[in-house]
Amino acid sequence: MKYAYYLGCLIPARLNQYDLSTRAVAKKFGIELVDLEGAGCCGTVLVRSVNFKTNLAMSARILALAKNMGFDLLVLCNGCYESLMEAEDFVKTNEDFREQLNTILKSTDNLVYEGGVKVKHLIQVLYEDIGIERLKDEIKKPFDGLRVAVHYGCHILRPSHRMKFDNAENPRILDDLVEITGAKSIYWPLKLWCCGSPILAIDRNLSLSIAGMKLKSAKEAGADCIVTICPACQIQFDILQPEISRVTGEQYNIPVLLYPQLLGLALGFTPEEVGLHLNRISAESLLKLQSKA
Length: 293
What we know:
- The chain is an alpha/beta fold.
- It has 2 domains: 2-122, Glutathione S-transferase Yfyf (Class Pi), Chain A, domain 2 (Up-down Bundle); 132-287, 3-Layer(aba) Sandwich (Rossmann fold), CATH 3.40.50.11810.
- The chain has helices spanning 10-14, 16-28, 44-48, 52-69, 78-93, 95-108, 122-130, 132-137, 160-163, 173-179, 204-220, 231-239, 241-248, 259-267, 284-287; strands at residues 2-6, 32-35, 73-75, 119-121, 147-151, 184-185, 225-228, 256-258.
- It starts with a strand and ends in a 6-residue tail after the last helix.
């Protein structure tokens, strides 16, 4: 099972633990990740707000590189996932855009792209290609009694008519994947709220206040930790948690894990092998809830 592997921008710059834990889990289940060489930024939602076609063209170039490799595309970043899915949709349904895109690609990279690359988020590959039962069979150190506030992030669920990743109002894929580790996915009222990251550069205090409301909601619901799959959300909740406390005046001390970190620990990998030491908020308390088997 091979995939072209696209990391995007945030992960290699600020979240090496996401890549580290993903590679460990992928190797365990025979998923070969082939680095997508020469790929740039996907165009991201920030570029989209300035120039929509530029955003689409940047994402379509990544799809073209994957097509040239002969593989479908595996991504970790929710924002990249949305941008790439949108570009693929436009290539398939908008002839004018496709012609403009290929004019650009031919002149810059000698590429042509007519569509056809499947874009999958890591947890889709785990859920659909590996499957819940096989994942369960490999759990060596389950998290007994761990209460998890699952956070999907916005861009993987919406707009729901295009993403079709899961039920946007009541998603279950990540919840189910969390629970195969022995943990319990708990109800928390602000589960589907935005983390506030998109406005961080515009109004930092407002952005961090929104994140603070999310952290407070998770804590009041009895969560031992938050588990997410979005790098921007991880930075917001984990790296910026001390600053959030300064803005809101509240202490949270909630560990925040990326899903392959949680899964990797349950599979028996050491904290160092999944990059737990690179997280800002200590997760030592969670390790005490693991089975000693």
